[in-house]
## 1
Amino acid sequence: MDITDIPVEGYERVARCRDEASGLHALIAVHDTTLGPSLGGMRLWNYESEDEALVDVTRLARGMTYKSAVAGTGLGGGKSVIVGDPAEVKSPALFEAMGRFIDDFGGSYITAEDMNIGIADLRHVKKTTDHVTGLSREEGGSGNPSPYTAYGCVVGIEAAAEWRYGSADLSGKHVLVQGVGAVGGEMARLLKERGARITICDIRDEHVAELCAEHGYESVDDLVHLDVDCDIYAPCARGAGINDETIPKLTCDIIAGCANNMLLEPRHGEVLREKGILYAPDYVVNAAGIINVGAERLPGGYDEEQAMRRINRIADNLREVFELAEAEGIATNRAAEHLAEKRIAAARQPC
Ligand code: NAD
């Protein structure tokens, strides 16, 4: 196994691993451990080149630093990527080699699931390193993060409603949910329980029809979903949906959902502010997954009640972001960044 460090400015450690025996080609990036060891998922993707993988892993690791800093997980930011075709490269030997690579970081990087990686893969990783989270409850882990992420998003939507309307009560509020998968589906159900009127859209027509029949939602074709006149727009599918083309169509008061990297570019946060739409920054709203998995590291191990208490703090974190944005006259996505940087800088101060 060959592990080589790659110097990247602003990162504590970035390294490449090539292992001929298992075919592993992977990168790990640790961006910042000021607030604690870095935790971030392991992604398996068919990158065209190592350069492309390097851009992805460093961008994602930095994002985890900000997400964890605002969420108050006591963790830093890191990420790993395996280069390869998800349909071809997976094997126990590959993931065991990945575990040895992770172990080389001595605990400064802790892994979890990300795209194309499941619990079965993490079990192989766990054979060669202890720095793994997100295994099942039976195995001492915190289990599937999606229901927690969904609940955390509802907490975030209520906090945004309170800021915007002066009340967190969602009864009668019209919420448009784009993408009713693991998170969006559960989130829609919880919002309906709270009395909201729900319109859903998804590219899976049959799934939409089933959910509407079961829960009494309304539905709209994804291609025209922005024509729906809603109070709250909750993107829960893919990223980059808020852009120059879509913003002019938006008539909602609030954007809050679970989709990662919702804004195509950071400047779109400013465009939303000018338009008078309250944007609840994605990584503040969708942090419950990392909060839940991070709770595995609490003294005594994972405890759901304690994890839920931490997830409920998403409301306080968002309020802090909104207050900062208002006080500084800046967009909420910028305010979230400032809040993260402030927390990291405070931790760096000598006592
Ligand atoms: P998922 O794959 O279970 O659900 C995504 C849903 O979006 C699917 O039903 C899919 O059919 C639908 N979809 C895809 N493209 C669409 C389109 N153009 N229009 C409408 N619907 C479309 O994924 P998930 O786990 O629910 O995650 C959703 C988003 O939340 C992703 O951006 C993910 O990165 C983010 N997120 C998830 C978690 C988590 O705990 N699962 C945590 C943080 C962030």
## 2
Amino acid sequence: MDKLAIIGGRPLFGTIPISGAKNSALKVMAAALLTDQPITLMNVPRLADVDMLLRLLEQHGAETQFDGSTLKLHAKTIASTEAPYDLVRKMRASFNVLGPLLAREGKAKVSLPGGCAIGARPVDLHLKALTSMGANIDLDEGYVLAEAPDGLRGAEISFPFVSVGATEHTMLAACLANGETTIENAAREPEIADLAECLNAMGAKISGAGGSTITVKGVDRLHGCEHRVLPDRIETGAYMMAVGATGGELTLTGANSDLLGAAWAVLEEIGLDIEAQDDAIRVRRNGERCKAVDIVTQPFPGFPTDLQAQFMALMTTANGVSTIKETIFENRFMHAPELSRMGAKISVDGQTATVRGVERLKGAPVMATDLRASMSLIIAALAAEGQTMVNRVYHLDRGFERLEEKLQACGALIERIKE
Ligand code: EPZ
């Protein structure tokens, strides 16, 4: 397994192009299964998770062509309505092929995604929504067997709590349903509006995406489209936090400040000098350490759980004490003991971590446990004195495009050691 060797203590200066959002790309890719016409997606990041979903879509019969960041998908016919365990277990977003297959073919057999390192992550809300839309669902030997021989029908769905995946899955399935579907307490993450924009370009009739109530009027068929995936707000926030930890100045091209929600104000509050420019964000830290600030993760527009680990890394060298409360996932502090190996002072009590900022971290061998935790260790390593060896970096390749290259271009001493 590859490792990253990082020698820290150097400020970052330069320009980093922000890639398309992984968590949007994976959903608009699943939308390709809803039509027999080709769809062209632009600004798609080259990531291990995208490759994995491509393999699954090919297995369902889609032709795929990935050229630079432009991805063409054409599911002229559906060759198989089964999504096997091996392709779904490695990446949860694969589960979202269930709704499109069911809507188009009237049946699907999709492996349950299972839990993952950050929490149990059940799919009960996804299945309840599909059941309300008339699907018959059985669970057998780890697979979801779903049938809707006469097609799905519109339904009134009210989620008991906000779920990004269940909101997206319901939208995907409802496009071809008979009648109108309303989704109450829908997730408001920017990726939801991006998916709706893509589906509407395919001929769907979705309104309200980005708000708490979404209405989907079912149509008979969808057609091809061109769609540009929105910029990755988590990659954007992570590089902003890296500057907070190391000092320096970065221009993040292609980034959009509107997508950062509460994180923008938090980054200002800790003392970063940030400016939204035309199609870019400039971030600068002058000399002083950042100020410690408390955060609570919340659904959008609150502070995103996907930036919590990176923010904790930044707070380890901030001036003061910060409390970080994680409310979305039950086991998302695995980076804390790894950061402690580098001299961070963190105590975890249930869902709250208290971080006492120190002047400086010291390089150490550490282990990446999940995607965002990996980025948290990279940020800490960039700021630390001496060398850090980050083991198990395959998690990073799932979600951060050309990470070493982007950081090297801004003066970071970071090198991949292939094993
Ligand atoms: C998406 O996961 C993202 N993944 C996650 O990013 C992100 O952390 C999360 O949304 C929250 O913003 C993708 O988009 C591929 P949820 P998702 O359904 O859709 C519980 C990353 O690092 N829940 O909003 O799976 C669930 O267990 C990843 O890029 C149920 O109980 O998240 C969690 O506690 C990690 N039953 C909470 O809801 C359900 O049926 C929110 O999860 C569905 C969810």
## 3
Amino acid sequence: MTPRLSQNPSYSKLLGEIRAGNVESLILVPTRREVIVRFLNGSRFTVPILPNDQQILRFAESSGTPLTVKDLRGEQAIASMTGNIGIFVIFVVGLTILIKRSIKIANRTINFGNSQPRLKASEDLQISFDDVAGITEAKDELLEVVTFLKEPTRLIKLGAKIPKGILLVGPPGTGKTLLAKAIAGEAGVPFFSLAASEFVELFVGVGASRVRDLFSRAKQSAPCIIFIDEIDAIGRQRGAGIGGGNDEREQTLNQLLTEMDGFTENSGVILLAATNRPDVLDVALMRPGRFDRRIEVALPDKEARTAILGVHARTKPLSEDVSLNEIALMTPGFSGADLQNLLNESAIFAARDNIKPIGKKQIEAALERLTMGISKPPLQDNAKKRLIAYHEIGHALVAINTPLADKVEKVTILPNSGGVSGYTRFTPNEENIDSGLYSKAYLYSRLMVALGGRAAEILVFGKNEVTQGASSDLQDVSMIAREMVTTFGFSKLGPISFTESNNEVFLGNTLINKKLNLAESTISQIDHEVRKLANKALNMAIELLSSRREQMDNLVEALIQEETISYKRVIELISISDNNNKIL
Ligand code: ADP
Ligand code: MG
Ligand code: ZN
């Protein structure tokens, strides 16, 4: 009789059952230290056994119960192998994901080079020359480019030589970017624009590849415009950086130069670039065939400001009591962007006051907010304005009355791109540029012109009122005078060069830290001669101006009124003063 077992039998009970012959079979699992018991009635139990159990073997043997031994090591091996395979699979999958991700990143890197330039279909560019006001000279110069882009073949047949690279130079917010877009808009050609800072990326080589890609895409869609904004970000003087400079930027710049040299003339691609730091640009960028055309975009004078306000007032209705002229009068030194901002702010004030057309009150409030924090805009300070005006007219008047001096192009009391308030611009004497020869008389005239500003200040405000505003003039003076003495032999010291080699020493690239074995006495002699030259030039400039005091005063009045006066206007004003003199 098989006892009905409802629970696991104990070890001793199991042995008894085996002996009694109630057990059908035994499966011994030594690794688990258990035995699986199958009774005759079909029930199954698992019973723990002793390690290395001999007893159960003997009992089974003596009672003739079949016993099998199950070795689990194989199974375990398989089980652990399965575990290993699992880890392996996870590893492989993980690695694949990693590789895929890094490929994606790498692709993105490559794509930086490919897809960054924003290609704008010309339809999207609805900016035309009408949207650009006040900078008429720049617009006129660029009109030719528009004509070329519209009908390239016609102009090429006529033998026209179109510049490859045009550099727009001017203070921030004067409309350089706007102007570039307007050209594309007018001509209806694609416009590729990229800020130079976008070229220079974390990854070395990306900038160069972007440049390459930009040009190849542009060439495919010629005629078109490539516009590189803020080119100074890559175009800085190479190798000037102390401590190695920036390799990535240099590579990018080199690539740009290569591309510019690479495209043939009249390929239909016109390269425009803008900067407000022309002084830091690498000279290689300005070589013939590269950015050889330079267009100045100056801060707007009163008339130009009125025109710019007019453009922006088209979308912002102004009330009757507002006169654009009056706003222009109140905003000397404002750029186009500043003026636009002024009208925006006024519109916000008007909305807040719930007034429909923008009124005078809102504009005044906006003006106050915009100039808040600025102690007083220099150009609203009349005394300072007058001083700047005298200084600049001093330069101009000396130049006009000195034979061989560079020709005055314009005089302005508006700040230039470097933030210097007031400047006089000259057209360099072409004969000198062509021959590369500078006569003693020419260099001397440069000294006088450079000192003209200081001379006027001394004459009008007295020696004690002289400002530091002329400090950059004085740097020019000492540089020119020193070179006259040491390099060109234009002094009492005779025709001896005191510099090491005289290649390209002229006008300021070098002369820094040239270690020469000069005797102490020679050095002091040089200093003496330099000072003598400068003093003589200053006295001559003062003399020249004092005999033209009336002309000078009239020019200053006109300059304060008009903010910028051209050469033509200067000559006109001089002849008016002279005629008045004759009548008196
Ligand atoms: P820049 O590139 O010289 O720094 P922007 O072209 O970016 O200046 O000018 C910024 C904004 O100022 C323009 O979008 C435009 O609204 C306004 N602006 C600047 N100059 C002019 C201008 N001469 N005529 C009309 N709007 C101008
Ligand atoms: Mg810009
Ligand atoms: Zn000066």
## 4
Amino acid sequence: MTTDAPPAVTIGVPRETLDGENRVALSPPAVTSLVKAGARVIVESGAGVAAGFPDAAYTDKGAVIGTRDEALAADVVAVVRAVRSGGLEQLAAPQMLVGMAAPFVDPSVMAAFADQGVRLHALELVPRTTRAQAMDVLSSQANLAGNRAVLLAAAALPKVFPLLTTAAGTIPPAKVFVIGAGVAGLSAIATARRLGAVVEAYDVRAAVKEEIQSLGARFVELPLETGQEGPSSGAYAQQMSEETIKRQQELMLKTVAASDVVITTAQVQGAKAPVIVTEEMVAAMAPGSVVVDLAAEQGGNVAATRAGETVDVGGVKVIGPVNVPSAVAHHASLMYGKNVANFLGLMVKDGTLYPETDDDIVRDTLVAAGGAVAHTRVREMLGLEPAPTPAAEPDVAPSADDAGAPTDSDVPQEDPA
Ligand code: NAD
């Protein structure tokens, strides 16, 4: 093991400790590219088991199996949930922590990470650019959640989805209404169509109409002034006024009432999810119908939703699943792991970590560094002055050939020792 070369950057993968979290930050295939880039990957023994990856699958790809302490002592600690427990609260400079940190949910947690001195990258902040898609954990996980939501609904519905013409009679197809056609919504539409349902969908951004139609679903037009007819991608929906939401609810009542299944996926980044489906709308659905609220953890798009529970509203089941990607932990970890490996690939070259690369993706995700909160919006939420570094706001589009690899000018400015 001992050579004269400088020690390779170490990347640690501890087992997730949050209740119900079955995913793992790096899957065995994701280890391959990091090992190729010269990193030494240390996986806590058993970290991948809940996602279907035994220790041997990691060693096959060149990782080392170690203790939790060894994984947590790495230069870079990669996690699914960057929470301040399970030893992550002990990480300190110059260590780097990479994972989903929910940076806008409780900014005081971000401040506490900053106080520890750890350099924190929150992967939810990966910009929505074409180049960053391969690192976009929100998209990769939402895609799976949308698929799973339909299967949850199908299992709870006392009906089948497809049109069946049999000697015993004809069964009409189930009617599915998907609200919010972002990544999760489009995945739900595609899944419901594949199962044979008749699908309708709605989004405040009228620009998604064509995407909805290309999946074989009908776009529900609501004559609303949302001011969000703009770009079809890259943008998050803005919060709407209370009057607009009220009007939306009135107009949507008929479609909801006629549906066997309603799947809601509408979120507004960094804010509580809008309540779109009222008690009245749910009560108008036929008994036996099912609502799956994928925004349950963000407060819910359905008034009756209780996160982690199934509520009965006059015979209609309102399901509020939490951490849906964890239910499909194997594929969720494969995709998340690829996202993480691609992200770290921006900073790891020839076995060395270059945390100070000026790559916009790396910079946009930086929440804490050098003992301070680095992210502009998190600083605002904490009532702090804007960060003094001019690099905080990326306004230069990356060039097309910028693959994100560190360049010779990316001299590490932090002591990696
Ligand atoms: P999201 O999870 O933020 O929200 C889900 C959907 O709900 C969005 O389409 C949003 O418009 C919609 N919504 C919000 N409030 C609503 C309301 N009151 N009523 C109805 N619908 C409402 O969305 P997302 O999955 O993050 O996707 C948002 C957009 O960004 C999509 O067009 C997606 O294709 C695009 N995107 C682009 C990239 C990229 O370019 N790298 C990556 C991911 C997503």
